[in-house]
């Protein structure tokens, strides 16, 4: 990390489901250009916290600051409009469409035929999609293949390329991006995180895989039972120390 500009700060986030307090006052900051892992046991509240930041869940309490200013994130569009993009488990891709179609879904570039008839500018779509896919350093066998014919890693890269379309994107949140992938595909996702980091993107990644976390993340936020059990720099600790934090010293 070269600079330590705070991009996102969350204070005392809270969320209950019925009688269950899933998140009990969580606070942390993210600096610009760093990759931060969120780890913790099943049910620790990791997904609930990232959903409050991405606007998928409304929070019961707490506040969120973005580049120093209080923001109200009540809907995914609110998060997106300030530069927070979230990769959901299903990736929200359309299986029958090719990569450019998915990258531009709902925001296709238009041109005018005969000077007045608006039609999709396929040529621009292919060119821009290729440029964005190059930024995430993914090689697709062909841009015409439907997404359903691509590998898990290629699909994730396509989903990320779509985020990059938004010039505003500053923070990319991934909730267990490698969970459903084979070993080689997992590697690609690690590479992707490194690539995004080198392009000054900030990454918040929920993961159960400490190998991966130690490989690409600068810091680790450990959740336990809806609370932050510790925040450590990857280079200052070993896996055993993180496991202890996850388990609450009961290892
Ligand atoms: N939509 C929901 N309705 C009711 N309870 C929920 C909901 N989402 C989460 N919870 C509960 O909140 C707690 C935290 O869940 P959360 O999904 O945030 O955990 P997690 O740390 O992401 O776990 P995992 O590692 O298994 O994904 C759990 O007890 C869970 O059952
Ligand atoms: Mg989860």
* Total count of domains: 2
Order of helices and strands: EEEHEEHEHEEHHEHEHEEH
Question: If classified by CATH, what would the architecture of the largest domain be?
Answer: 3-Layer(aba) Sandwich
Number of strands: 12
So how many helices?
8
Structural class: alpha/beta
> CATH class of the largest domain, anyone?
Alpha Beta
Approximate helicity band = 25-40%
Strand order of the largest sheet: 6-9-10-3-11-12
Largest sheet: 6 strands, mixed
What small-molecule ligands were found?
adenosine-5'-triphosphate, magnesium ion
- End-to-end separation: 32 Å
Overall mean pLDDT score? 89
- In CATH, the homologous superfamily of the largest domain goes by the name P-loop containing nucleotide triphosphate hydrolases
Keywords, separated by commas or semicolons:
single chain, alpha/beta, Rossmann fold, 2 domains, 6-stranded mixed β-sheet, 4-stranded antiparallel β-sheet, 8 helices, 32% helix, 29% strand, binds adenosine-5'-triphosphate
Report on this model:
- The protein is globular and about 70 Å long.
- It has helices at residues 46-54, 76-82, 99-103, 122-135, 152-165, 183-198, 210-216, 239-247, and strands at residues 6-17, 20-31, 35-40, 61-66, 69-71, 84-87, 110-113, 117-120, 171-175, 202-206, 219-224, 227-233.
- It folds into two domains: 1-83 and 170-251, Rossmann fold, CATH 3.40.50.300; 94-167, no CATH class.
- It is 32% helix and 29% strand.
- The strands form three sheets. A six-stranded mixed sheet has the order 6-9-10-3-11-12, with helices on both faces.
- The mean pLDDT is 89.
- α4 (122-135) packs across α5 (152-165) and α5 runs parallel beside α6 (183-198).
- It is built from eight helices and twelve strands.
- The longest helix is centred in the last third of the chain and has 16 residues, at 183-198.
- It is α/β, with parallel strands linked by helices.
- Adenosine-5'-triphosphate (ATP) binds at residues 17, 20, 22, 40, 42-48.
């Amino acid at each position: 990390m070269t600079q330590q500009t705070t991009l996102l700060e969350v204070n005392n986030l809270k969320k209950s489901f019925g009688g269950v307090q899933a998140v009990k006052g969580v606070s942390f900051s993210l600096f610009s250009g760093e990759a931060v892992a969120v780890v913790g046991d099943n049910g620790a509240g990791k997904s609930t916290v990232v959903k409050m930041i991405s606007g998928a869940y409304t929070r019961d309490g707490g506040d969120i600051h973005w580049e120093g200013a209080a923001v109200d994130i009540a809907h995914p569009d609110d998060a997106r409009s300030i530069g927070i993009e979230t990769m959901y488990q299903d990736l929200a891709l359309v299986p029958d469409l090719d990569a450019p179609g998915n990258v531009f879904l709902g925001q296709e570039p238009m041109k005018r035929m005969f000077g007045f008839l608006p039609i999709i500018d396929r040529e621009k779509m292919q060119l821009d999609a290729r440029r964005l896919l190059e930024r995430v350093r993914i090689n697709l066998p062909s841009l015409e293949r439907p997404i359903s014919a691509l590998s898990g890693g290629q699909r994730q890269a396509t989903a990320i390329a779509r985020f990059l379309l938004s010039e505003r994107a500053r923070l990319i949140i991934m909730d267990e991006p490698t969970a459903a992938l084979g070993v080689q595909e997992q590697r690609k996702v690690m590479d992707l995180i490194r690539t995004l980091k080198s392009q000054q993107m900030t990454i918040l990644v929920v993961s159960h895989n400490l190998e991966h976390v130690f490989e690409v993340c600068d810091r680790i936020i450990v959740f336990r039972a809806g609370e932050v059990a510790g925040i450590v720099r990857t280079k200052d600790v070993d896996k055993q120390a993180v496991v202890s934090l996850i388990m609450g010293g009961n290892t």
